[in-house]
């Protein structure tokens, strides 16, 4: 079994890169790809663990795009961690995130919930601050009882305190990832199911924009979702990947390699992904 989607405290997870590698080993995974949001910051420490574990440690990241009016996540799997152009592009994304964070603090103050960037930083072990850290700061200051309530009332996607970032187009994300030697993959497409969203058409559109794979196995999918997306990938000729989206204590009950219990990502998906990396099309 493998896991090609997980986070450390370099973005919005809680594990160190070292503890994640050891967890992959004790979960008896054969490969583990670290995919922190907008950063390869945890990668050097993660790869340094390779001499101590048998599980193959792989490099990735997760980027946010705007697609059909929604926030679509794209995984950049097997990117080259030494690619200076890609690193500069990630730096630009982190700058946009900081802008967004500043605007979100102003909005929250207008809503009667004044917190400071220091409050948010106090809940993060990384300079990359995400809404997970905002939620903890809002709870610590007593503006919500618990962090999940912050997402329900204040900073969830449809809430008054949320400010979107300037997001990439899928075309741009796919090109950046390909130019860094990686494979661009649509993350957890099942999160968009419902509300009249038609994946048959949307995925074909994303494929035309350069997306080469989709996450057919996911820590929080129902069996029916996995079946639908694996079949959709086969129809379109896209590669299938899979992962738990493990975030440590920030997503309680979600286990590395196992998801909510039923996840099993087959080893041969990685062989197929590596073939795609070598021979896949660059649109
Ligand atoms: P950001 O990248 O700063 O916009 O924060 C996005 C992160 O917040 C996601 O990766 C999730 O970990 C978390 N998140 C977003 N919406 C929710 C929600 N409704 N409940 C809990 N966590 C959420
Ligand atoms: Mn996350
Ligand atoms: Mn995601
Ligand atoms: Mn993720």
From TrEMBL:
InterPro entries for this protein: PHP_dom (IPR004013), PHP_domain (IPR052018), Pol/His_phosphatase_N (IPR003141), Pol/histidinol_Pase-like (IPR016195)
All residue ranges annotated as the Polymerase/histidinol phosphatase N-terminal domain in the record: 2-67
SUPFAM superfamilies per record: PHP domain-like (SSF89550)
Single GO term (MF): 5'-3' DNA exonuclease activity
Record Pfam families: PHP
CDD domains: PHP_HisPPase_AMP (cd07438)
Domain of life: Bacteria
Stated name of the protein: PHP domain-containing protein
């Amino acid at each position: 079994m493998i896991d090609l989607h997980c986070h450390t405290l370099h973005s919005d997870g809680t594990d160190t890169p070292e503890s994640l590698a050891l967890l992959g080993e004790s979960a008896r995974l054969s490969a583990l790809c670290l995919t922190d949001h907008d950063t390869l910051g945890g990668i050097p420490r993660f790869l340094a663990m390779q001499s101590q574990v048998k599980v193959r440690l792989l490099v990735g990241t997760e980027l946010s795009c705007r697609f059909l009016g929604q926030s679509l996540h794209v995984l950049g799997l097997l990117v080259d961690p030494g690619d200076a152009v890609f690193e500069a592009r990630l730096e630009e994304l982190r700058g946009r995130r900081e802008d967004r964070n500043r605007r979100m603090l102003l909005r929250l103050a207008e809503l009667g919930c004044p917190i400071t960037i220091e409050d948010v930083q106090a809940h993060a072990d990384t300079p990359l601050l995400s809404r997970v850290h905002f939620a903890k700061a809002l709870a610590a200051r007593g503006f919500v009882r618990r962090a999940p309530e912050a997402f329900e009332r204040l900073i969830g996607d449809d809430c008054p305190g949320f400010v979107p970032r300037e997001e990439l187009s899928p075309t741009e994300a796919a090109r950046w990832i390909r130019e860094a030697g990686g494979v661009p993959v649509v993350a957890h497409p099942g999160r968009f199911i419902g509300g009249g969203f038609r994946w048959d058409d949307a995925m074909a559109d994303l494929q035309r924009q350069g997306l080469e794979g989709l996450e057919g196995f996911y820590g929080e999918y129902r069996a029916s979702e996995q079946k639908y997306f694996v079949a959709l990938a086969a129809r379109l000729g896209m590669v299938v990947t899979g992962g738990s989206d493990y975030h440590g204590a920030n997503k309680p009950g979600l286990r590395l390699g196992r998801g909510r219990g039923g996840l099993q990502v087959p080893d041969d998906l990685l062989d197929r992904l590596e073939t795609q990396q070598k021979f896949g099309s660059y649109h």
